[in-house]
From TrEMBL:
GO terms for cellular component: plasma membrane. InterPro entries: MFS, MFS_dom, MFS_Riboflavin_Transporter, MFS_trans_sf. It holds the Pfam family MFS_1. The keyword Membrane applies. It comes from the Bacteria. This is MFS transporter. The chain crosses the membrane at residues 16-34, 54-77, 89-112, 118-136, 148-167, 179-198, 241-264, 276-299, 306-325, 331-356, 368-390, 396-414. Keywords: Membrane, Transmembrane, Transmembrane helix, Transport. It is found in: Cell membrane.
Length: 425
């Protein structure tokens, strides 16, 4: 990669491979992406509708359009990661997301709401997940699945804690104060840790991926290189697998964002309370958390495209259950199944790109994938909002959404890892 620093020492000495410190910071980044994630923003929507007297479809349109534009600009973040490195980008994006939270705390109308949504989605949902997902694969190859599983803890803690925490903060202190809390937390906690602890690659501190051989072996032979096939973005885009997987990674973003954004309304339509929606989101995270460790070991041993197909089969089952349920117990069952699916997708959607195309140009490649994911999430809320305003429910749109994971499951099975030798043969 072009963004490399001179070989030096780790900022803190650890009795274990420093890559695990990197994993911790990456997990913290995923956690603090929460203010820009739909599971967090969705808790504010009812307050926005009440305070600004907007329709649900209007707020959905603002959110979807802002997400769409954020997605179209996200690929530039991936290129910047390759150029200046994850350390600088993580700190800058953390500061910008803190500013976005403070902006949302003082917004007074539709234009400010739109800009606020845009910044949250670009810097939160997009960049704060893109950067750690390009950082951890630099430090791990053989243990990549396990490392990403540990990193995913941050995402599950975020999705488990933020919905009920936001609900409590909004009810007791108001939605403006809630946004201020997250802005201050980002600036005071995350940004300093990112600046001090993050290093872009193992070679920056005299190590190699996975931490073996021992550090003293590298001192004797500092030119040790890890044998890995690295595709450029241009080369990757000429493979069938790239385009089929690109469609696949957009599907969870599309479906999950649509359901999550309107989950409070969906649950209310089944005669249940708002608190049940927050419980479902938390339950999804709690169930998904241990599943990631199983999947982390699985993808280190089984071809990723098979695990991806299993993930989409789970999506189909979860949506079918959501269509049928009409009680608290039924919605809880949905949350459990959704948790299993979420545990699979958090790992497999992250590991497929470095496993297929290597680490060297991962920022650019993952940047395109993250752009497509954000675009997918942009088109999720609006169809649900429009369908609700037109027909007063969500049943029809949920049936339509089942088609997307069905197609993605087929595409996954048609997308084994491309052969680097065959491409260059």
């Amino acid at each position: 990669m072009s963004a490399q620093s001179q070989t030096g020492h780790a900022p803190v000495k650890t009795p274990f491979y420093y890559g695990w410190v990197i994993v911790f910071i990456a997990g913290l980044s995923v956690f603090f992406s929460g203010p820009g994630q739909t599971y967090s923003v969705s808790i504010f929507i009812e307050s926005y509708i009440a305070d600004f007297d907007y329709t649900r479809s209007f707020v959905s349109a603002l959110y979807s359009t802002a997400t769409l534009i954020a997605g179209l600009t996200l690929f530039m973040v991936g290129r910047l990661v390759d150029r200046v490195g994850q350390r600088m980008m993580m700190a800058v994006v953390g500061i910008l997301l803190a500013i976005a939270c403070l902006w949302n705390s003082v917004m007074v109308g539709a234009i400010m709401m739109f800009v606020g949504f845009f910044m949250l989605r670009l810097f939160g949902q997009g960049s704060m997940t893109l950067i750690p997902n390009t950082l951890v694969p630099q430090w791990f190859i053989g243990k990549r699945g396990r490392a990403l599983s540990v990193m995913a803890i941050g995402g599950f803690l975020s999705s488990a804690l933020l919905p009920p925490l936001n609900t409590w903060l909004i009810n007791d202190f108001g939605w403006r104060t809630t946004w201020m809390v997250w802005g201050v937390a980002l600036a005071v906690i995350f940004v300093p840790l990112a600046i001090f602890l993050v290093r872009n690659q193992p070679k920056d501190i005299g190590e190699i991926p996975d931490g073996t051989p021992k550090h003293h072996d590298l001192q004797q032979n500092p030119n040790v290189e890890v044998n890995e096939e690295n595709w450029t973005l241009k080369e990757a885009m000429k493979t069938r697998a790239f385009w089929l997987i690109l469609f696949c990674v957009s599907v969870p973003a599309l479906v999950n964002t649509g359901v999550t954004f309107h989950l409070v309304s969906i649950v209310q339509g089944k005669g249940l309370s708002d608190e049940i929606a927050a419980i479902v989101l938390t339950l999804m995270a709690v169930i998904g958390f241990p599943v990631t460790f199983i999947v982390g070991y699985l993808v280190d041993r089984v071809s990723v495209h098979y695990v991806l197909a299993i993930t989409f089969a789970g999506h189909i089952i979860a949506l079918f259950i959501l269509l049928q349920v009409s009680s608290t117990k039924g919605v809880i069952v949905y949350g459990i199944i959704w948790g299993f699916v979420n545990g699979f997708e958090r790992i497999v959607l992250s590991i497929v790109w470095p496993n297929y195309f290597g680490r060297e140009h991962l920022g650019s490649i993952k940047g395109i994938a993250q752009t497509i994911m954000v675009l997918g999430s942009a088109f999720g809320p609006l169809p649900f909002g429009l369908y609700f305003d037109w027909f007063g429910g969500y049943e029809g749109i949920l049936w339509i959404m089942i088609l997307f994971p069905l197609i993605a499951m087929i595409f996954s099975l048609l997308s084994p890892k491309p052969s680097y030798q065959a491409y260059h043969g």
